[in-house]
Structures are given as structure tokens and as C-alpha cells.
């Protein structure tokens, strides 16, 4: 009996030993697994191009639609009536001030000149006779052989003859002037238009006469546009203070394109109208452009950029660094631990491949500029330097920012 009890006791002790050994092994394995998990590999950093943001000077521009206008335009009319004898220009050609364009038959006016000059000679002959009579009378006065009344008459005859000479000269001058009007010359330099009256036709003279052709000046040329009154005010505020700011309008730059692929033509502000259109809230503005190569034509459509007299300091980021989150714009700021931080920003005007940031970003902060689609907020960043040419393009001083209207 005692032997059986001893056997059972040994069996129970063996079983308990096995169970305890299993528990110890499980605990050891669990502890090892935990330590293995705690000391596992860190998550890998995402490569991304990073750049530091700074504040730089930019030229702010606002864009408007406008039309080109000739500075001078002349409807050429004859000053005297007559028959068009000849035409001396080609339609659409460039002419200079003083170039002969039309000739009106000069024969009748040449005859008038000859007649007037003959009257001058007759008046001069009468004056010479009156003067000789006066001299004779003066000699007779010394001998007291002429009455004072006769002497006064001879003096009056001289004065009347002098007046007749002056009148005859005036008639001759008018006749010669009318003769000169038979040569219709260009009053301005520019491009001549269509011939409205051909050779052989009779025309009247004066303001009611028919238009022979039209001339418009081409260089320089105006561009006129309606600008938002607030944009005009912002531009005027950059001019020197004191006195009338409008005396310094030429300091405000203007750029113009006649099409999306056309070259930029630069000019200067010349006029800001004195009245705001109450219906549209716009002001009529005019600038002067150089047109030395004669590419621009009056009436042509133009996209005009109105600048400011001074540059403005601004924070600018590349377009490719800006993310879109529904109706929000954001950038990923890289903190000192190389972690990407989501930052909402407010944007201003476009500027040379970038955008002005009006709020949400400070100079000196680093942002992800390339690889934005690969980086999530909170991710670890492996910063890569920005390509020199991209950095130089964005950091050029005096860059221009444009806002369309």
C-alpha cells in the first residue's frame, strides 16, 4: 500500500515539473519575441527635394484687356476745290510728314497768282508816282509856290498807294497759298489708307470736302484699357509722395501682348482718366508703346499688364510644391527632425513659375518642392537638394507676379 502511494506521488511530481517547464519556456519565448519587436528596424525615410523659403522682391502686375490706338489720325481733305490730277502714293504704304500724296489741277490757281502779282506791280507803280509827286510838292513848299491843301493831298495819295500795295501783296500771298494747296501733302508720318477719290474727279475744298484718304501714325502707339479702380490705386500708391502723383506716371511700367505666342512689348503709363465709371468700377487708362518695327496696328486686341513703380517683398513657393486638399492649398513643411508637417497656406499672384504666399509660411522654413505625391503628412523625409537651375529660376530678384482681371 505504501509502495503504491509513493508511486502516485512521484508521478504527480513529474507531471507538475513538466507543466512548470512548459510555462517557463512559454514565458521565455514571449519575452524574447517582445524584445525582438521593440528592437526591430525603423521605418525608412522617403527621398524628397527640399528647399528653404525666403522673402524676395517681386514686381506685381495686374492683367487687363485693351485695344491699340493711333496717337495721331488724319482724315485728309482738300483745302481747295478742283480736279484730282494725280496720285503719288501706294495704298497701305508708310509716308513721312511732307510727302506729296495728291495733286489738284494747278492751272486755275497759277492764273490767279499771275493776276495777283500783276496787281502788286500796278500798286507799286502808283506808289512810286505818288511819292514823286509828294517830293515835288515838298520842294515847292520851300519856295511857297504850293498850297498846304495840295501838299496834304499828295501826302494822302502816298499813304493810300502804300495801303494798296499791302492789299495787293496780301491777295498775291493768298493766291500763292491756294496754289500750294494744289499739292496735298501728308500732315503727319504714318501709314496711309485706302484711296477714296481717284484721279479725274472734281472735289470741293474745306471741312465739308470728301476724304481723300486716311493717315494714322504708327510709332509710338497707344494701348488703352479699362482698369479696376483698386488696381489703379495700388499702382499710384507706389509713386513718390508730394505734389501731383500723376506727374510721375511714366514710372509705372506696362507690358502688352497681342496674342498668347506674341512677344512682350514694353511701355510706360501715359494717362489715367479723371473719372471712375460708376457702373463698372473701372478707370480708363492709356500707355505708350514703342512700335519701331511696325508690327502693331491701331484697333488690335491686346492683353495688357499694369505694373507698379516699386517692387514688393514677398514669400514665393514653386507651383509644384503646392498641394490641393479639396478647397484648400497646402505645403509640406520639413521640421528639424525631418518630418513632413501639413501646413495650409493662402496664395496670392502667380510669379515666374511660383506663387506668392500671403499667409501660412514664414521665410527660412523648409518645404518639400519635388516628390510631393510620394510624401504623406507625418512621414519621415530624406531631404535632397534642389537642382541649381530650378532654384535660380525661382530666386531671381525682381521677378514679376501677375494677376488677371
TrEMBL record:
- Which InterPro entries does UniProt cross-reference here? MdtA-like_b-barrel, MdtA-like_BSH, MdtA-like_C, MdtA-like_HH, RND_pump_MFP
Where is each Multidrug resistance protein MdtA-like barrel-sandwich hybrid domain found? 73-214
Where found in the cell? Answer: Cell envelope
Q: Which domain of life is it from?
A: Bacteria
Report domain Multidrug resistance protein MdtA-like C-terminal permuted SH3 positions.
Answer: 314-374
Residue stretches making up the Multidrug resistance protein MdtA-like alpha-helical hairpin domain = 114-182
Q: Fetch the Gene3D superfamilies from UniProt.
A: 2.40.30.170, 2.40.420.20, 2.40.50.100, Helix hairpin bin (1.10.287.470)
One GO BP on record is: response to antibiotic
Give the protein's recorded name.
Efflux RND transporter periplasmic adaptor subunit
The family database entries (NCBIfam families) matched by this protein are listed as: RND_mfp
Gene Ontology cellular component terms for the protein in this record: cell envelope; plasma membrane
- Multidrug resistance protein MdtA-like beta-barrel domain residues are 220-306
GO MF assignments? transmembrane transporter activity
Locate the region Disordered: 384-405
UniProt organism field: Microvirga makkahensis
- SUPFAM superfamilies on file: HlyD-like secretion proteins (SSF111369)
| Protein family membership | Belongs to the membrane fusion protein (MFP) (TC 8.A.1) family.
